[in-house]
Amino acid sequence: MKRAEHNVYFATGCNLKALSCYFLRGHTTIREIIARTSVVIWKVLQPTYLPNPTKETWVQSARRYWELWNLPNCVGSIDGKHIRIKRPPKSGSEFINYKGYFSIVLMAVSDADGCFLTIDVGEYGRNSDGRALKESNFGKKLVNSTLDLPDPSPLPGQDTNFPFYFAADEAFPLMCTIMKPYPKRGLTNRKRVFNGRLSRGRKSVECSFGMMSSKFRILHTTIGLNINTVDNIVKAVCLLHNFIKKEEGIFSRPRGKKGNDDDIEVENEEQPYPRLSNQRRATNPAIATREKLCDFFLTVDGSLKGQKRFCV
């Protein structure tokens, strides 16, 4: 019975009053069941379906990104998702995001097939994705070089080593280990190709959020529980997403390197991003790394047949 109540809440996002009437239980009991079950899901499933990434995990992810999305040395895509919550008591404006509602941030790294590799939950909604990454455990390990990423290796057909990196959008800082698109102002065709190719691989994390939200409708509602319980619910939902993906065995099919034009999608340039007040300037090594990857996309080994559609 407890599992049924919990599943209905996750899948439909219905309010606690409706659950209380349906299962003939008090509000306090329903809250306790949801809170405890979320913790148990994380405790039982996390070691199997969302373990701490190892060097071998990153290597396998990079190999899959090259097979599916033709991104060399890419170990994952990073993005943040705002989880709508009820205003916490005495919280002021800490949880109000740039869209105008109260939220916490789910910071996630996805592999090429749409499974989460690592997540961080609970950052204040007012922070940008870049700030949330900086404050997360994952972001701190990334900056301190303690993520156990593979040693740099040459890009396909190249001789010099190139670092392994994460694909991200404009909201994140440019680093040697984080590749982001060029600013939209003053784009050349060369840079447009880079932006399109990076966006093509980065969308895997957005697909992860979309698939998870479509299965667990609670993410479309305002969660009216305390912050600790909301954190546990989000972590449990991410775990269940990985569980479903891996147990169903449904993964994306690799696309040929010289695929058709239909294999490439143009990024929506009208997508709004929050003001990035906490973002630091890119370092010269990071800029040089992006330039090298940009050049690779124009070589025989790195180009795609359909990438000319990014040009004007």
UniProtKB/TrEMBL annotation:
- Give Gene Ontology CC terms: nucleus
Q: Does the keyword Zinc-finger apply?
A: no
Q: Which domain of life is it from?
A: Eukaryota
* Presence of the UniProt keyword Ubl conjugation in the record: no
GO MF term list: hydrolase activity; metal ion binding; nuclease activity
UniProt keyword list: Hydrolase, Metal-binding, Nuclease, Nucleus
Domain DDE Tnp4 per the UniProt entry, residue ranges: 78-242
Q: Which Pfam families match?
A: DDE_Tnp_4
Which cell locations does it reside in? Nucleus
Disordered, as annotated region: 252-280
What cofactors does this protein use? a divalent metal cation
Membership in a protein family:
Belongs to the HARBI1 family.
Protein name from the UniProt record: DDE Tnp4 domain-containing protein
Task: State the species of origin.
Answer: Acanthoscelides obtectus
